[in-house]
Amino acid sequence: MRFLPLIWSGIWRKPGRTILMFLQISVAFALFGVLQGLKTGVEHLVAAARADLLIVHTRANLFSPLPLGLLERIKSVPGVKMVVPVELSGATYQKPDQQLGIVAVSTEGDWLSAFTFTVTPEHAAALRNTRTGALILEATAKKYGWKIGDHIPLMTRTVLLGASAAWEFEVAGTFSDSDIGGGGDKILINFSYYNEARQAGKNTVNHFNVAVTDPKLAVSVADEIDRRFANSSNETKSESLRELAQLELQSIGDLNFLIRAIVGAVLVALLFATSTMMMQSIRERTAELAVLKTLGFTDRAVFLLILAEAVVVCVVAAACGLALALFAFPFAARFISGLSMPLVVVEIGLASALLVALVSAGVPAILAARLRITEALASR
Amino acid sequence: MRLIRQFFALLIMSLAGIPQRLGSVLTIIIGVACAVGVLVSMLSMGAGARQQEQANVRADGVVLTSVGARVFQSSVAREEAAVIREMPGIRRGTDGEPIVTFESYFPMEGRRRVTGKRVFMPLVGISESVLQYRPQMHFTSGRMFQRGLRELIVSNACARQFTGFEIGDRRSLPGGDWTVVGHFDQGVGQPCSVYADVDILMSTFARNSYSTVSVVLRSASDYDAFRKAVQTNPTLHLEARHEREVVEDSFKQLNALFDFVSYFVGTIMAIGATLGAVNSLYSIVDARRRELATLRAIGFGSGAITASILCESALLALPGALLGAGLACALFNGLSVSPFGYSFQLEVTRSLALTGVVWALAMGLFGGLLPALRAARVPVTTALRAT
User: ipTM, 2 decimals?
Assistant: First the structure.
């Protein structure tokens, strides 16, 4: 502790140089924070996706219809808690570029247990009791200023029994969604109403959402469901939300390589800059270090002193840079919905800063420790 | 004249001293190399994507979409489609029919050949007239799909990247198995495309509207008249735009992402490298205080000193730039990436490398500015007296 003033004065020996160094490290770690944040953030999103919620769709792909009749057979698989038929379609509100997803679900029983949605009991009851009702994603309701009781006309691509393409829903409440894809505008409606209104494809669904009794059983339940429908005209594929999230974020996967390359380049450049600066600094301070040793500082103390200087500058500068990254992150992350910067990135960043400091100051510190007093003072 | 002679004398002296200051010099070179390398490789991604998007666009091509909608959101009703076929100004193909292609987009899954991972990709339903719309499209093996049959044709780029697209392979899609019957090349751009007959695809997926319609005009100058005709036709709720505009529009977000990433990352790295250069140059100038003061004392002007330091810094940045651009080229040129479901090749072009060099020179000059001014202002007496 009593060496702190000494470290401090060592750091500020050349204020201009230290400030430039500090800025350089901050900038490097701001970039590190944002990029690593994107990478780790995506990984966290995947890990956070629920593994105990299964989506049962056709084996061919995610988007083809399945008959509603499979419901009972899926329900009879041991380990299945809840099965909810889900039909997806799209609509637009007022302008063709104001798109909405329509999620038609059967609102019977504990249907919410098979979704990542959060709905208050009153709103859930309101949807169940209003045939033409709709629950609106909170962000969507805010965007268009929809209030409970409003009637909203939507243009839909689904061919309806009535001649008009406009379809009106009554706002029954709002919901929020914790899933990765929770970003887009969407509304929840009653499947029974949707099924009656459409002209074609009656009694088919996009997929079934299945909640399992025990998350550990998810994989075996998925296999069992697929086994039951194997070799039938409706072969299924059951996947957990986590597997689907992996698939969805796979597309960004290629960028991981680039991110790793950039972060590598940043750290290499930084390492080089800091080590040259430290070397330069030690060379200039030969005489001062010799004086310290004359006063009785051991080799080890001098070694630690030099290391401490580098560590303080690097870690504090990195902390500033990472704070900056935290601030700038939402701006960079706007391309991926629901992404937030995991705090583990800050830890990785500080650890990297420590490493950079130790590696770059290592050689200069050893040189300083090995300094011979007589030679150092004689060279003056 | 004297200034120039002094300048060159100083420059040669500075450059001759490089071996003694290897650490500082290498800091500048490596810092600049990293910044330029990253900038150039990031920009090459955007350039590759743009190049791919626009490669096969034709100048007399017009795409009709719903008013104000992007390609994937657009919908064109069958009645509208019939009206478009009869519109004047559309070029007729070899069969005497107007060249009008209807497109409809469906999602499908592909499996990467290298990683074995699944990704989503678009399956495009398209009219047979696409062969006339894109004359550069030619089959390298197999044949065109037959109207009314469940057949797929894929570009060679796709067949290379994804499994299950060999000729004769059956893909399990709605309505049963779809057979791959042809591989084609598309001229300059090598996008990954999977095509099938639009009408059979729409009936299989129970969809009743096309996504977009593309037509070829009799001449590119007919564009305004055609656009007006579409706009004023009361039965059409569509908008006609140059194919180039529509393509640009649909890739706007992706391009914005690439631009943002390139320049955001590039700028930050450039700032870092510049700071590193400032620091190194300061220490170089500091180490040469006595030398510079001596030069001043024997009559070298401060202007020549400033200019020589600036020039030295720019010259030091140059090898860094070449190293960085070279590394980017060696590591990334021709690398095939497919972020967000679009596949394209990175392309390190000469103009991108040049951009990198310009950035490097800017970093060198900015970095050299303050140290150069300090060098010119070294107080002669104190600097000479100091040990």
Answer: 0.73
